[in-house]
Amino acid sequence: MEWTANNPRFDKCDNSALDDLSDSALDPKLVYCVTRRWKEEQNFTYATTPLLTETAWFYKDSLYKVEMTLLTDAGINGVITRLKWKFGKPAGRETTRTQNGFGARFEHKRLTWKNRVSTLELIYSSASGDHPDLTFTLSPPNQDVIGRAKQTERTKASSDM
Questions:
Q1: Domain definitions of the chain by residue range
Q2: How confident is the model over 136-152, as a mean pLDDT?
């Protein structure tokens, strides 16, 4: 698969709204593309675990992030095992405990692997119905995107006054 925003196989590419809210354009150089969805490709997996969606993010026409949402949390242990085998022990582990209005308690976990050029994050939860997310990010372009987002927010905040 060609990893460019102009790949005709990507059925939805957009740079106008990054959070489904109107008037939230971040940067015309930032584009995300939904590359695959479960409903179109039933044999769509990562580490043999079925995926719900895969999204590719491009900055200045170069791939800088890939996000994958697992169909269910049923294969999370297999994904963690394979990630540890390939990348070693996570550099970071974070657990957050929450409770909903009905008193049910949940744990949200974040495992992070880092090297000099990229970050890999796996986020999953004990809440039923939550879909684990796996994100690969290239560090240098991500820092550029974060910097430009902060600049956009500062500009927007000063123009709102």
A1: 37-98+106-143
A2: 66
